[in-house]
C-alpha cells in the first residue's frame, strides 16, 4: 500500500481528489495533510480522519516519508512545494495548470527528470470513458483525420486574473486536442478576443499536426453556460462526444449511441467513475507501483503547455 501525503485542502481537492483517493483506501493510505487555513484543515480532518496534520509541508515530508504526494493548490503557490517534494524523491500528483507559467512548468520538468520521479497532472479529459472509447474505435480504423474540442462557460474575464483562462482552464481542451490527434503541432493559427469584459474570454485555434491530422479548439468564457464536447474522426468513422455524458458513433453510415457510464459498465450515478477522475487516480497509483510513466506526466504535458504558448502568442484580435 502506498503512503500518501496531501498538500492543500481547497475547493478542487475537497470536491474531486480527496473523495476519489478515499475510494482507493485499499491501495492508498491517506497518512497526513498539510494546510495553512485552519477551517479547511478542520474540515478535511473531520471528513477523512487524518491522524497527522501539518502547517509546513517540508516537516510532513520528513516525518511521514510518503511514497506519493497530492499537491493540489492555486498555480500562484504551486512551484516551491512541488520542487521541495521532488527534491525529497516523492512522486507527485498536481492539478493543472502546471505553475504560474511555462517557465515554471519547465522547472518542474527539469527537477522531475533530475530526481527520477513522476509528476502526474490532473488533465482528466484524457481518462474520460467517452474519450478512451473514441480513440479505441478510431485508431482501429486507420489514421486520425480531424479532432475538435469545445469548452464553453459563462465566466466573463475582468482583466485582473492571475493567469489567462487559456492557461488555467482551457488547457484541458488544448491538451485533449493534442492527445486525440496523436501528433505534435507544426502549424498554429489562433485568435484571442475580449467579449463582455476586460480580459480575453474567447479563444479559437486551428492546429496542423505532424501526422497530417488537423485539430480545432474552441474555448469561450462569454457564452451562455458550461459545455464540454469533442469530436474524433478517422477513416469511415466519426465520434461525437458530450463529455462525460455520452458518445455518438457514426461508422460506415450506421449510427449508435452510448452513455458514458455504459462503456465500462459503471453506474449512471457514479460520475467520477466515467468522467475520468477515478481512472486517472487508479492509473497514477498503478504507474507508481510499476514505475511506468503516467499518461499525463509532466514529461508529456510540457508539450501541451508549449501548444498553449503558441496559441497565446498568435496575433491578438481584440473585439471592438
Structure report:
- α4 packs parallel to α5 and α7 crosses α10.
- The C terminus is likely disordered.
- α5 links the parallel β5 and β6.
- The longest helix has 17 residues.
- The protein is globular, with a radius of gyration of 20 Å.
- The N and C termini lie far apart (57 Å).
- The chain has an 8-stranded mixed sheet, with helices on one face. The protein has a 6-stranded parallel sheet with strand order 3-2-1-4-5-6, sandwiched between helices.
- With 320 residues, it is of the alpha/beta class.
- The chain has 2 domains: 116 residues, Rossmann fold; 159 residues, Dihydrodipicolinate Reductase, domain 2 (2-Layer Sandwich), CATH 3.30.360.
- It is built from 10 helices and 14 strands.
What's a concise summary of this model?
This protein is an alpha/beta fold and 320 residues long. The chain is 37% helix and 28% strand.
Strand order of the largest sheet: 8-9-10-7-11-12-13-14
Per the CATH scheme, the topology name of the largest domain is Dihydrodipicolinate Reductase, domain 2
Q: Which segments are poorly predicted (pLDDT under 50) over 5 or more consecutive residues?
A: 316-320
String of helices and strands:
EHEHEHEHEHEHEHEEEEEEEHHH
| Number of discrete domains | 2
Draw up the topology in text.
Blueprint: E1 2-7, H1 11-22, E2 28-34, H2 38-48, E3 52-54, H3 57-64, E4 68-71, H4 79-87, E5 91-94, H5 102-115, E6 119-121, H6 129-139, E7 146-154, H7 165-181, E8 185-193, E9 202-209, E10 214-220, E11 222-233, E12 237-242, E13 246-251, E14 254-259, H8 271-275, H9 277-290, H10 298-313
Parallel strand pairs: 1-2, 1-4, 2-3, 4-5, 5-6, 7-10
Antiparallel strand pairs: 7-11, 8-9, 9-10, 11-12, 12-13, 13-14
Helix pairs in contact: 4-5, 5-10, 7-10
Amino acid at each position: 500500500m502506498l503512503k500518501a501525503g496531501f498538500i492543500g485542502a481547497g475547493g478542487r481537492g475537497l470536491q474531486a481528489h480527496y473523495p476519489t483517493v478515499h475510494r482507493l483506501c485499499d491501495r492508498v493510505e491517506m497518512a497526513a495533510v498539510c494546510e495553512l487555513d485552519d477551517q479547511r484543515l478542520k474540515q478535511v480532518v473531520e471528513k477523512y480522519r487524518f491522524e497527522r496534520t501539518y502547517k509546513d509541508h517540508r516537516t510532513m515530508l520528513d516525518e511521514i516519508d510518503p511514497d506519493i504526494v497530492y499537491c493540489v493548490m492555486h498555480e500562484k503557490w504551486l512551484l516551491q512545494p512541488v520542487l521541495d517534494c521532488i527534491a525529497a524523491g516523492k512522486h507527485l500528483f498536481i492539478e493543472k495548470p502546471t505553475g504560474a507559467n511555462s517557465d515554471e512548468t519547465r522547472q518542474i520538468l527539469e527537477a522531475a527528470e533530475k530526481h527520477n520521479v513522476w509528476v502526474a497532472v490532473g488533465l482528466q479529459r484524457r481518462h474520460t470513458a467517452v474519450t478512451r472509447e473514441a480513440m479505441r474505435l478510431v485508431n482501429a480504423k486507420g489514421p486520425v483525420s480531424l479532432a475538435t474540442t469545445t469548452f464553453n462557460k459563462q465566466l466573463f474575464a475582468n482583466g485582473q486574473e492571475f493567469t489567462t483562462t487559456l492557461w488555467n482552464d482551457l488547457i484541458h481542451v488544448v491538451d485533449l486536442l493534442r492527445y486525440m490527434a496523436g501528433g505534435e503541432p507544426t502549424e498554429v493559427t489562433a485568435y484571442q478576443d475580449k467579449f463582455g469584459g476586460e480580459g480575453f474570454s474567447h479563444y479559437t485555434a486551428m492546429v496542423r499536426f505532424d501526422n497530417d491530422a488537423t485539430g480545432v479548439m474552441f474555448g469561450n468564457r462569454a457564452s451562455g453556460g458550461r459545455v464540454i464536447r469533442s469530436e474524433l474522426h478517422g477513416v469511415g468513422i466519426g465520434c461525437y462526444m458530450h463529455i462525460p455524458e455520452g458518445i455518438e458513433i457514426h461508422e460506415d453510415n450506421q449510427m449508435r449511441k452510448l452513455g458514458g457510464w455504459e462503456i465500462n459498465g459503471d453506474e449512471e450515478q457514479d460520475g467520477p467513475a466515467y468522467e475520468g477522475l477515478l481512472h486517472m487516480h487508479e492509473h497514477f497509483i498503478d504507474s507508481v507501483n510499476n514505475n511506468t510513466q503516467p499518461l499525463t506526466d509532466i514529461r508529456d504535458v510540457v508539450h501541451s503547455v508549449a501548444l498553449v504558448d503558441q496559441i497565446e502568442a498568435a496575433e491578438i484580435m481584440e473585439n471592438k
